[in-house]
Amino acid sequence: MPILKPLVLTALLAMTACGAGSAPTPSSPSGSGTPPTQSGGGTPPSTSGGGTPSTPPGPGTPSTPPGSGPCPPAGPIAAPAAGPLDAALFGVWTDVTDKLELAFLPDGRAFMLDTRPGTKVGAQPGTWQVRQGKLDFHWLISGPDRESYGVSGNGMTVAGWIEMNRTGSAGDAPGEYARQTAAAAADAQTWQARYPVGPIVASNAKNDPQPGRVCAGATVYSGEGLDVEDMTILTAYYTDPYQVVHEYKTGQAVEFNFLPNGRFWHNSWLAKGVDANFQPVHELITVWGRYRVQPGPALEGDTVTLEYDGGTTETVKVLGGRRYLYQPGSDILYLNQHPKPTPGG
């Protein structure tokens, strides 16, 4: 995960969505969760601030007639261009708690092993460069991350507060990268087998406005499907009638649920301030669409084409043994909400 991304919780707060029913709970079986009745069309909710969803526009009109039909091919997800490197960083670095390791290779590859509390992604390869005096990472699973850094001999400070020591030379870095990447790939293969793909299995989901609108001949997530979610806890403020400002905690969440019938729904659970009793209120917005999966290697992940019923199309990646979904357009990393038993557990 990016080194300083905000801590994101993976359980919905026990709140009721304002005027739209309750959000699906993480305990619902994947692929069978029942979203509240909502309008079926629309543009997918946009986001800002690295995972905080903003209010989406209203429902749209499907650009194609209801029913099965071809879906557009998956679009490419751009890879970062190669850039300048800092030779002072070449090697393997470990933080003072031994919970974070970074390997910097002279060819621009990098690896991060992160076992700190609250970490979303424990191990992932990526690339690095130095741009405008800052470390510019692009991690395979969690995407781009930019951090300040300073090096003095065999010591380094990252993001202004993470103290690291060089524990391996430039010559050690390629071997460490290969060892850690192989371990991450093996772990991802074990996980991926728990979330199979296959042909569409016809069925109607509750509240689906266009259940027959699927990608003909598509490969989809079979079995129980796939359910992924991101939630952010927010600090907000309100002013009471006596002009006293109060701080309170609230949350916003986004969720994808991919069904074995070739359909998906996307929920946005949006914070909308407080009510007359100064209790947090939320709005729940659901949009539907069809999807197809282009399976890929376990670690590098699947490429998934989403076509919303409102006509918008986007490409996302399902990575790391199908435990994560990365949405490039919003820079949101979703977590699998129904993980199977952990390897060896």
Automatic annotation (TrEMBL):
- Spans of biased composition, class Low complexity? 19-38
Feature: compositional bias, Pro residues: 54-75
Comp. bias intervals (Gly residues):
39-52
**KW tRNA-binding (keyword) present:** no
Q: Is Signal one of the keywords UniProt gives this record?
A: yes
Signal sequence span is 1-22
Question: Which keywords does this Swiss-Prot/TrEMBL entry list?
Answer: Plasmid, Signal
Q: What is this protein called?
A: Lipoprotein
Q: From which organism does this entry originate? A: Deinococcus sonorensis KR-87
Upper taxonomic classification of the species? Answer: Bacteria, Thermotogati, Deinococcota, Deinococci, Deinococcales
